[in-house]
Amino acid sequence: MEHLEELPDHVSLYRQGTFLDLCEGPHLPTTGRIKAFKLLNVSGTYWRGDARNKVLQRIYGTAFPEPKALEEYLHMLEEARKRDHRKLGKELDLFSIHEEAGPGLVIYHPKGAMLRTILEDFEKKEHLKRGYQIVIGPSLLRLDLWKQSGHFENYRDKMYFTKVEDAEYGIKPMNCLAHMLIYKSQIRSYRDLPLRYFELGTVHRHEKSGELHGLLRVRGFTQDDAHILCRPDQLNDEIGAIIDFVDDVMKIFGFEYEMELSTRPEKSIGAEEDWERATQALLQALKTKNLSFEINEGEGAFYGPKIDVKLKDALHRRWQCATIQVDFAMPERFDLTYIGSDGERHRPVMLHRVILGAMERFIGVLIEHYAGAFPVWLAPIQATLLTVTERHISYGEKIYAQLIEKGIRTEKDFRNEKLGFKIREAQIQKIPYMLVIGDREERDGTVSPRQRSGEAIEGMRIEDFIKRVESEYPRL
Fold this sequence. Notes:
The protein has 3 domains: 2-80, Threonyl-tRNA Synthetase, Chain A, domain 2; 118-370, BirA Bifunctional Protein, domain 2; 383-471, Anticodon-binding domain (Rossmann fold). The protein has 15 helices and 23 strands. It has helices spanning 2-6, 67-83, 85-91, 110-129, 143-149, 151-155, 176-184, 235-253, 272-288, 329-333, 359-370, 393-405, 419-428, 439-444, 462-471, and strands at 13-16, 19-22, 36-46, 55-64, 95-97, 106-108, 133-134, 140-142, 160-164, 167-171, 195-204, 220-230, 256-262, 293-296, 306-312, 318-327, 338-339, 345-346, 349-358, 383-387, 410-413, 433-437, 448-451. The strands form 7 sheets. An 8-stranded mixed sheet has the order 7-11-12-19-16-15-13-14. The protein is globular and about 80 Å long.
Protein backbone atom coordinates (compact mmCIF):
# COMPACT_ATOMS: atom_id res chain seq x y z
CA MET A 1 0.00 0.00 0.00
CA GLU A 2 2.89 2.35 0.76
CA HIS A 3 4.33 1.71 -2.70
CA LEU A 4 0.95 2.19 -4.38
CA GLU A 5 0.62 5.67 -2.89
CA GLU A 6 3.87 6.68 -4.59
CA LEU A 7 3.44 4.93 -7.94
CA PRO A 8 1.62 6.33 -10.99
CA ASP A 9 -1.91 5.21 -11.83
CA HIS A 10 -0.83 2.21 -13.92
CA VAL A 11 1.05 -0.50 -12.03
CA SER A 12 2.36 -3.92 -12.98
CA LEU A 13 1.21 -7.03 -11.12
CA TYR A 14 2.49 -10.59 -11.10
CA ARG A 15 0.32 -13.56 -10.20
CA GLN A 16 1.26 -17.18 -9.58
CA GLY A 17 -1.50 -19.29 -8.10
CA THR A 18 -2.80 -17.43 -5.08
CA PHE A 19 0.30 -15.26 -4.85
CA LEU A 20 -0.15 -11.70 -6.11
CA ASP A 21 2.52 -9.01 -5.94
CA LEU A 22 3.60 -5.71 -7.44
CA CYS A 23 6.35 -6.44 -9.95
CA GLU A 24 8.03 -4.19 -12.50
CA GLY A 25 9.58 -7.05 -14.45
CA PRO A 26 10.97 -7.72 -16.95
CA HIS A 27 9.52 -11.24 -16.97
CA LEU A 28 10.70 -14.32 -18.80
CA PRO A 29 8.20 -15.40 -21.47
CA THR A 30 8.45 -18.91 -20.01
CA THR A 31 10.32 -20.74 -17.26
CA GLY A 32 10.44 -23.91 -19.37
CA ARG A 33 14.16 -23.47 -20.14
CA ILE A 34 15.11 -23.53 -16.46
CA LYS A 35 16.75 -26.90 -15.73
CA ALA A 36 18.47 -26.07 -12.45
CA PHE A 37 17.51 -23.93 -9.49
CA LYS A 38 18.39 -23.61 -5.83
CA LEU A 39 17.11 -21.67 -2.84
CA LEU A 40 20.14 -20.06 -1.24
CA ASN A 41 19.19 -18.54 2.11
CA VAL A 42 16.63 -16.58 4.09
CA SER A 43 17.37 -13.35 5.93
CA GLY A 44 15.67 -10.44 7.60
CA THR A 45 15.78 -6.97 6.10
CA TYR A 46 14.39 -3.65 7.25
CA TRP A 47 11.66 -2.24 5.04
CA ARG A 48 13.41 0.26 2.75
CA GLY A 49 16.70 -0.26 4.60
CA ASP A 50 15.54 1.82 7.58
CA ALA A 51 16.04 0.33 11.07
CA ARG A 52 12.94 2.22 12.27
CA ASN A 53 10.74 0.15 9.96
CA LYS A 54 9.51 -3.42 10.29
CA VAL A 55 11.71 -6.40 9.54
CA LEU A 56 10.68 -8.34 6.43
CA GLN A 57 11.73 -11.83 5.42
CA ARG A 58 13.78 -12.00 2.25
CA ILE A 59 14.20 -15.29 0.36
CA TYR A 60 17.16 -15.62 -1.99
CA GLY A 61 17.22 -18.09 -4.86
CA THR A 62 18.79 -18.57 -8.28
CA ALA A 63 17.98 -20.44 -11.49
CA PHE A 64 19.93 -21.43 -14.62
CA PRO A 65 19.18 -23.15 -17.92
CA GLU A 66 21.85 -25.82 -17.27
CA PRO A 67 23.06 -27.63 -14.11
CA LYS A 68 26.70 -26.82 -14.99
CA ALA A 69 25.97 -23.08 -14.93
CA LEU A 70 24.34 -23.43 -11.51
CA GLU A 71 27.33 -25.44 -10.27
CA GLU A 72 29.75 -22.72 -11.45
CA TYR A 73 27.64 -20.02 -9.81
CA LEU A 74 27.49 -21.88 -6.49
CA HIS A 75 31.27 -22.34 -6.63
CA MET A 76 31.64 -18.57 -7.14
CA LEU A 77 29.36 -17.92 -4.12
CA GLU A 78 31.43 -20.27 -1.97
CA GLU A 79 34.62 -18.53 -3.10
CA ALA A 80 33.03 -15.16 -2.29
CA ARG A 81 32.18 -16.40 1.23
CA LYS A 82 35.80 -17.43 1.77
CA ARG A 83 36.93 -13.99 0.56
CA ASP A 84 34.35 -11.99 2.58
CA HIS A 85 36.32 -8.95 3.79
CA ARG A 86 34.40 -8.91 7.10
CA LYS A 87 35.52 -12.47 7.88
CA LEU A 88 39.10 -11.94 6.69
CA GLY A 89 39.27 -8.53 8.36
CA LYS A 90 38.69 -10.23 11.71
CA GLU A 91 40.96 -13.24 11.04
CA LEU A 92 43.83 -11.03 9.84
CA ASP A 93 43.22 -8.46 12.60
CA LEU A 94 42.80 -5.55 10.16
CA PHE A 95 39.74 -3.63 11.40
CA SER A 96 36.58 -3.77 13.47
CA ILE A 97 33.20 -2.01 13.62
CA HIS A 98 31.53 -1.70 17.03
CA GLU A 99 27.88 -0.94 17.66
CA GLU A 100 28.83 0.90 20.85
CA ALA A 101 31.04 3.23 18.78
CA GLY A 102 28.38 3.67 16.10
CA PRO A 103 27.29 1.70 13.02
CA GLY A 104 29.23 2.31 9.84
CA LEU A 105 32.27 3.74 11.65
CA VAL A 106 35.52 1.84 11.06
CA ILE A 107 38.28 1.30 13.62
CA TYR A 108 41.59 0.28 12.04
CA HIS A 109 43.83 -2.10 13.98
CA PRO A 110 47.63 -1.83 13.57
CA LYS A 111 47.81 -4.09 10.48
CA GLY A 112 44.79 -2.44 8.85
CA ALA A 113 46.20 1.02 9.59
CA MET A 114 49.50 -0.06 8.02
CA LEU A 115 47.70 -1.27 4.88
CA ARG A 116 45.88 2.03 4.62
CA THR A 117 49.11 3.99 5.23
CA ILE A 118 50.82 2.08 2.41
CA LEU A 119 47.96 2.97 0.06
CA GLU A 120 47.97 6.61 1.14
CA ASP A 121 51.75 6.93 0.71
CA PHE A 122 51.42 5.37 -2.76
CA GLU A 123 48.64 7.85 -3.60
CA LYS A 124 50.60 10.89 -2.46
CA LYS A 125 53.65 9.86 -4.47
CA GLU A 126 51.65 9.24 -7.64
CA HIS A 127 49.70 12.51 -7.33
CA LEU A 128 52.83 14.59 -6.77
CA LYS A 129 54.37 13.01 -9.90
CA ARG A 130 51.38 14.27 -11.89
CA GLY A 131 51.48 17.87 -10.73
CA TYR A 132 48.91 17.77 -7.91
CA GLN A 133 49.30 19.88 -4.76
CA ILE A 134 48.35 18.35 -1.41
CA VAL A 135 45.82 20.36 0.63
CA ILE A 136 43.82 19.76 3.82
CA GLY A 137 40.38 21.16 4.61
CA PRO A 138 38.30 21.23 7.83
CA SER A 139 35.62 18.67 8.69
CA LEU A 140 33.13 21.41 9.66
CA LEU A 141 32.01 24.30 7.47
CA ARG A 142 29.33 26.90 8.08
CA LEU A 143 25.85 26.00 6.88
CA ASP A 144 25.72 29.09 4.64
CA LEU A 145 28.47 27.59 2.49
CA TRP A 146 26.54 24.35 2.05
CA LYS A 147 23.50 26.38 1.02
CA GLN A 148 25.56 28.38 -1.46
CA SER A 149 26.97 25.21 -3.04
CA GLY A 150 23.56 23.56 -3.38
CA HIS A 151 24.41 20.67 -1.06
CA PHE A 152 21.84 21.75 1.52
CA GLU A 153 19.10 21.80 -1.08
CA ASN A 154 20.08 18.65 -2.96
CA TYR A 155 22.12 16.52 -0.54
CA ARG A 156 21.08 17.35 3.02
CA ASP A 157 19.44 13.95 3.63
CA LYS A 158 22.96 12.49 3.50
CA MET A 159 24.53 15.15 5.75
CA TYR A 160 25.06 15.64 9.49
CA PHE A 161 24.64 19.05 11.11
CA THR A 162 25.68 20.62 14.41
CA LYS A 163 25.74 23.96 16.24
CA VAL A 164 28.82 25.77 17.53
CA GLU A 165 28.23 28.97 19.56
CA ASP A 166 24.80 29.45 17.97
CA ALA A 167 26.20 29.13 14.44
CA GLU A 168 25.05 26.19 12.32
CA TYR A 169 27.62 23.95 10.64
CA GLY A 170 27.56 21.00 8.28
CA ILE A 171 29.94 18.06 8.65
CA LYS A 172 31.42 17.70 5.20
CA PRO A 173 30.17 14.88 2.94
CA MET A 174 32.55 16.08 0.19
CA ASN A 175 35.82 18.02 0.04
CA CYS A 176 35.13 20.45 -2.81
CA LEU A 177 34.12 23.55 -0.81
CA ALA A 178 37.46 24.01 0.99
CA HIS A 179 39.30 23.53 -2.30
CA MET A 180 37.29 26.33 -3.90
CA LEU A 181 38.09 28.59 -0.94
CA ILE A 182 41.80 27.88 -1.48
CA TYR A 183 41.39 28.89 -5.12
CA LYS A 184 39.60 32.09 -4.11
CA SER A 185 42.30 33.05 -1.60
CA GLN A 186 44.22 34.95 -4.29
CA ILE A 187 43.85 36.31 -7.82
CA ARG A 188 44.54 33.66 -10.45
CA SER A 189 45.98 34.15 -13.92
CA TYR A 190 45.34 31.99 -16.98
CA ARG A 191 49.03 31.08 -16.71
CA ASP A 192 48.40 29.49 -13.26
CA LEU A 193 45.92 26.97 -14.63
CA PRO A 194 45.34 24.12 -14.32
CA LEU A 195 45.50 23.94 -10.51
CA ARG A 196 45.18 20.42 -9.15
CA TYR A 197 44.31 20.17 -5.43
CA PHE A 198 44.53 16.71 -3.83
CA GLU A 199 43.26 15.73 -0.39
CA LEU A 200 42.91 12.45 1.45
CA GLY A 201 39.79 13.93 3.01
CA THR A 202 37.65 12.20 5.62
CA VAL A 203 33.93 12.76 5.07
CA HIS A 204 30.71 11.59 6.71
CA ARG A 205 27.46 10.66 5.03
CA HIS A 206 24.19 9.50 6.54
CA GLU A 207 23.65 6.06 5.06
CA LYS A 208 20.63 4.07 6.24
CA SER A 209 21.55 1.49 8.86
CA GLY A 210 20.00 -1.34 6.85
CA GLU A 211 22.29 -0.52 3.90
CA LEU A 212 25.58 -0.54 5.85
CA HIS A 213 27.89 -3.41 4.90
CA GLY A 214 31.36 -3.88 6.40
CA LEU A 215 33.85 -1.56 4.69
CA LEU A 216 31.85 -1.42 1.47
CA ARG A 217 29.09 0.86 2.79
CA VAL A 218 30.00 3.03 5.77
CA ARG A 219 29.15 6.41 7.27
CA GLY A 220 32.66 7.74 7.81
CA PHE A 221 35.27 7.29 5.08
CA THR A 222 38.30 8.89 3.46
CA GLN A 223 38.39 9.74 -0.24
CA ASP A 224 41.43 10.24 -2.45
CA ASP A 225 39.70 13.39 -3.59
CA ALA A 226 41.01 15.98 -6.03
CA HIS A 227 39.60 19.06 -7.70
CA ILE A 228 41.13 20.46 -10.85
CA LEU A 229 40.40 24.04 -11.82
CA CYS A 230 41.24 24.73 -15.43
CA ARG A 231 40.45 26.85 -18.44
CA PRO A 232 37.72 25.50 -20.77
CA ASP A 233 40.35 24.88 -23.48
CA GLN A 234 42.28 22.62 -21.04
CA LEU A 235 39.27 20.48 -20.13
CA ASN A 236 39.75 17.63 -22.62
CA ASP A 237 43.43 17.20 -21.79
CA GLU A 238 42.71 17.11 -18.06
CA ILE A 239 39.94 14.50 -18.43
CA GLY A 240 42.26 12.41 -20.62
CA ALA A 241 45.06 12.63 -18.05
CA ILE A 242 42.70 11.42 -15.30
CA ILE A 243 41.63 8.46 -17.45
CA ASP A 244 45.31 7.58 -17.97
CA PHE A 245 45.90 7.89 -14.20
CA VAL A 246 43.02 5.50 -13.49
CA ASP A 247 44.36 3.02 -16.07
CA ASP A 248 47.89 3.10 -14.59
CA VAL A 249 46.61 2.47 -11.07
CA MET A 250 44.15 -0.29 -11.98
CA LYS A 251 46.95 -2.20 -13.74
CA ILE A 252 49.06 -2.00 -10.57
CA PHE A 253 46.32 -3.76 -8.57
CA GLY A 254 45.39 -6.18 -11.36
CA PHE A 255 41.88 -4.86 -11.98
CA GLU A 256 40.01 -4.79 -15.26
CA TYR A 257 37.34 -2.10 -15.48
CA GLU A 258 34.37 -0.74 -17.41
CA MET A 259 33.14 2.84 -17.96
CA GLU A 260 29.72 4.41 -17.49
CA LEU A 261 28.67 7.92 -18.47
CA SER A 262 26.02 9.29 -16.09
CA THR A 263 23.85 12.20 -17.24
CA ARG A 264 21.85 14.98 -15.55
CA PRO A 265 19.60 13.82 -12.68
CA GLU A 266 16.20 15.25 -11.86
CA LYS A 267 17.55 17.09 -8.78
CA SER A 268 20.38 19.25 -10.12
CA ILE A 269 21.79 22.75 -10.42
CA GLY A 270 23.26 24.71 -13.32
CA ALA A 271 22.27 25.83 -16.80
CA GLU A 272 21.24 23.31 -19.45
CA GLU A 273 23.92 24.53 -21.88
CA ASP A 274 26.61 23.97 -19.23
CA TRP A 275 25.40 20.42 -18.65
CA GLU A 276 25.53 19.82 -22.39
CA ARG A 277 29.10 21.20 -22.63
CA ALA A 278 30.19 19.07 -19.67
CA THR A 279 28.58 15.91 -21.06
CA GLN A 280 30.14 16.45 -24.48
CA ALA A 281 33.58 16.94 -22.90
CA LEU A 282 33.31 13.55 -21.15
CA LEU A 283 32.02 11.89 -24.32
CA GLN A 284 34.86 13.34 -26.36
CA ALA A 285 37.47 12.12 -23.87
CA LEU A 286 36.06 8.57 -23.92
CA LYS A 287 36.01 8.54 -27.71
CA THR A 288 39.54 9.98 -27.96
CA LYS A 289 40.77 7.17 -25.70
CA ASN A 290 38.77 4.68 -27.78
CA LEU A 291 37.01 3.36 -24.67
CA SER A 292 33.68 1.57 -24.74
CA PHE A 293 31.09 2.77 -22.23
CA GLU A 294 27.42 2.61 -21.27
CA ILE A 295 25.07 5.53 -20.73
CA ASN A 296 23.51 5.73 -17.28
CA GLU A 297 20.62 8.17 -17.74
CA GLY A 298 19.87 10.57 -14.87
CA GLU A 299 22.55 9.24 -12.50
CA GLY A 300 25.02 12.13 -12.62
CA ALA A 301 26.01 14.24 -9.60
CA PHE A 302 23.63 17.13 -8.84
CA TYR A 303 26.26 19.61 -10.10
CA GLY A 304 27.50 17.80 -13.23
CA PRO A 305 27.70 14.66 -15.40
CA LYS A 306 30.31 12.04 -14.61
CA ILE A 307 32.26 9.04 -15.80
CA ASP A 308 32.07 6.17 -13.32
CA VAL A 309 34.72 3.46 -13.41
CA LYS A 310 33.46 -0.01 -12.44
CA LEU A 311 36.40 -2.25 -11.64
CA LYS A 312 36.17 -6.04 -11.86
CA ASP A 313 37.71 -8.20 -9.14
CA ALA A 314 39.05 -11.76 -9.20
CA LEU A 315 35.46 -13.12 -9.16
CA HIS A 316 34.40 -10.73 -11.97
CA ARG A 317 32.20 -8.72 -9.60
CA ARG A 318 31.87 -5.00 -10.39
CA TRP A 319 32.68 -2.26 -7.88
CA GLN A 320 32.23 1.50 -8.18
CA CYS A 321 35.48 3.27 -7.27
CA ALA A 322 36.95 5.94 -9.56
CA THR A 323 34.82 8.79 -10.88
CA ILE A 324 35.38 11.91 -13.02
CA GLN A 325 32.85 14.76 -12.79
CA VAL A 326 32.70 17.98 -14.84
CA ASP A 327 31.26 20.96 -12.98
CA PHE A 328 30.41 24.38 -14.42
CA ALA A 329 27.89 25.14 -11.63
CA MET A 330 30.12 25.43 -8.53
CA PRO A 331 32.58 27.93 -10.07
CA GLU A 332 29.54 30.04 -10.97
CA ARG A 333 28.02 29.84 -7.49
CA PHE A 334 31.30 30.70 -5.77
CA ASP A 335 32.29 33.34 -8.34
CA LEU A 336 35.61 31.66 -9.18
CA THR A 337 37.55 33.59 -11.82
CA TYR A 338 40.92 33.92 -13.47
CA ILE A 339 42.47 36.78 -15.44
CA GLY A 340 42.72 35.79 -19.10
CA SER A 341 45.31 36.81 -21.68
CA ASP A 342 42.93 39.63 -22.63
CA GLY A 343 43.09 41.08 -19.10
CA GLU A 344 39.43 40.22 -18.45
CA ARG A 345 37.91 37.93 -15.80
CA HIS A 346 36.88 34.45 -16.98
CA ARG A 347 35.19 31.48 -15.29
CA PRO A 348 37.23 28.28 -14.77
CA VAL A 349 35.79 24.77 -15.03
CA MET A 350 36.08 22.40 -12.06
CA LEU A 351 36.73 18.67 -12.29
CA HIS A 352 35.87 16.52 -9.27
CA ARG A 353 37.65 13.15 -9.32
CA VAL A 354 38.73 10.18 -7.24
CA ILE A 355 41.02 7.34 -8.34
CA LEU A 356 40.58 4.64 -5.68
CA GLY A 357 37.45 6.30 -4.32
CA ALA A 358 36.61 5.71 -0.67
CA MET A 359 39.66 4.14 0.98
CA GLU A 360 37.40 1.96 3.13
CA ARG A 361 35.56 0.52 0.15
CA PHE A 362 38.75 0.05 -1.85
CA ILE A 363 40.41 -1.79 1.04
CA GLY A 364 37.33 -4.02 1.35
CA VAL A 365 37.51 -4.77 -2.38
CA LEU A 366 41.27 -5.44 -2.16
CA ILE A 367 40.81 -7.90 0.71
CA GLU A 368 38.27 -9.87 -1.34
CA HIS A 369 40.19 -9.55 -4.61
CA TYR A 370 43.38 -10.97 -3.09
CA ALA A 371 41.55 -13.21 -0.57
CA GLY A 372 43.65 -11.48 2.11
CA ALA A 373 46.93 -12.64 0.49
CA PHE A 374 48.21 -9.18 -0.43
CA PRO A 375 51.13 -8.77 -2.82
CA VAL A 376 54.45 -8.15 -1.07
CA TRP A 377 54.40 -4.36 -1.52
CA LEU A 378 50.92 -4.08 0.06
CA ALA A 379 51.25 -6.68 2.83
CA PRO A 380 51.10 -5.05 6.31
CA ILE A 381 53.67 -7.62 7.44
CA GLN A 382 56.06 -8.65 4.67
CA ALA A 383 58.19 -11.14 6.59
CA THR A 384 58.16 -12.96 9.91
CA LEU A 385 61.31 -14.28 11.59
CA LEU A 386 60.97 -17.82 12.93
CA THR A 387 63.60 -19.16 15.32
CA VAL A 388 64.13 -22.92 15.54
CA THR A 389 65.15 -22.75 19.22
CA GLU A 390 65.68 -20.09 21.87
CA ARG A 391 69.45 -20.06 21.31
CA HIS A 392 68.86 -18.47 17.88
CA ILE A 393 67.10 -15.40 19.28
CA SER A 394 70.27 -13.29 19.48
CA TYR A 395 70.99 -13.83 15.77
CA GLY A 396 67.29 -13.25 15.01
CA GLU A 397 67.40 -9.85 16.70
CA LYS A 398 70.33 -8.81 14.48
CA ILE A 399 68.44 -9.85 11.33
CA TYR A 400 65.31 -8.07 12.58
CA ALA A 401 67.24 -4.81 13.09
CA GLN A 402 68.68 -5.01 9.54
CA LEU A 403 65.25 -5.61 7.97
CA ILE A 404 63.55 -2.81 9.90
CA GLU A 405 66.36 -0.39 9.01
CA LYS A 406 65.79 -1.14 5.31
CA GLY A 407 62.04 -0.59 5.61
CA ILE A 408 60.99 -4.25 5.38
CA ARG A 409 57.86 -4.66 7.51
CA THR A 410 58.88 -7.50 9.80
CA GLU A 411 57.60 -9.24 12.90
CA LYS A 412 59.34 -11.67 15.24
CA ASP A 413 58.10 -15.09 16.32
CA PHE A 414 60.71 -16.15 18.86
CA ARG A 415 58.29 -18.22 20.94
CA ASN A 416 59.36 -21.57 22.33
CA GLU A 417 57.06 -23.45 19.91
CA LYS A 418 57.70 -26.06 17.23
CA LEU A 419 58.81 -24.59 13.91
CA GLY A 420 55.98 -26.31 12.00
CA PHE A 421 53.41 -24.71 14.28
CA LYS A 422 54.89 -21.24 13.75
CA ILE A 423 55.00 -21.74 9.97
CA ARG A 424 51.32 -22.75 9.87
CA GLU A 425 50.33 -19.72 11.94
CA ALA A 426 52.22 -17.39 9.59
CA GLN A 427 50.55 -19.02 6.58
CA ILE A 428 47.11 -18.53 8.14
CA GLN A 429 48.02 -14.85 8.57
CA LYS A 430 48.95 -14.86 4.83
CA ILE A 431 52.38 -13.33 5.47
CA PRO A 432 54.35 -13.41 2.18
CA TYR A 433 57.68 -14.62 3.64
CA MET A 434 58.72 -16.70 6.62
CA LEU A 435 62.45 -16.48 7.41
CA VAL A 436 63.67 -19.55 9.26
CA ILE A 437 66.69 -19.08 11.54
CA GLY A 438 68.53 -22.14 12.87
CA ASP A 439 72.08 -23.38 13.43
CA ARG A 440 72.99 -23.44 9.72
CA GLU A 441 71.63 -19.96 9.06
CA GLU A 442 73.46 -18.51 12.08
CA ARG A 443 76.71 -20.23 11.04
CA ASP A 444 76.47 -19.05 7.40
CA GLY A 445 75.06 -15.59 8.14
CA THR A 446 71.95 -16.30 6.07
CA VAL A 447 68.19 -16.81 6.35
CA SER A 448 66.03 -19.55 4.79
CA PRO A 449 62.92 -18.00 3.25
CA ARG A 450 59.63 -19.84 2.78
CA GLN A 451 56.73 -18.40 0.81
CA ARG A 452 53.17 -18.45 2.18
CA SER A 453 52.35 -21.05 -0.51
CA GLY A 454 54.67 -23.41 1.38
CA GLU A 455 57.47 -23.28 -1.18
CA ALA A 456 60.93 -23.23 0.39
CA ILE A 457 63.63 -21.00 -1.15
CA GLU A 458 67.36 -21.68 -0.98
CA GLY A 459 69.09 -19.89 1.89
CA MET A 460 70.39 -16.40 1.10
CA ARG A 461 72.19 -13.51 2.70
CA ILE A 462 69.90 -10.86 4.20
CA GLU A 463 71.06 -8.27 1.62
CA ASP A 464 69.82 -10.54 -1.19
CA PHE A 465 66.48 -11.09 0.54
CA ILE A 466 66.00 -7.32 0.86
CA LYS A 467 66.70 -6.93 -2.88
CA ARG A 468 64.15 -9.69 -3.61
CA VAL A 469 61.44 -7.87 -1.64
CA GLU A 470 62.28 -4.52 -3.24
CA SER A 471 62.06 -6.10 -6.73
CA GLU A 472 58.43 -7.02 -6.04
CA TYR A 473 57.33 -3.39 -5.68
CA PRO A 474 55.34 -1.95 -8.60
CA ARG A 475 56.93 0.44 -11.06
CA LEU A 476 54.84 3.26 -12.53
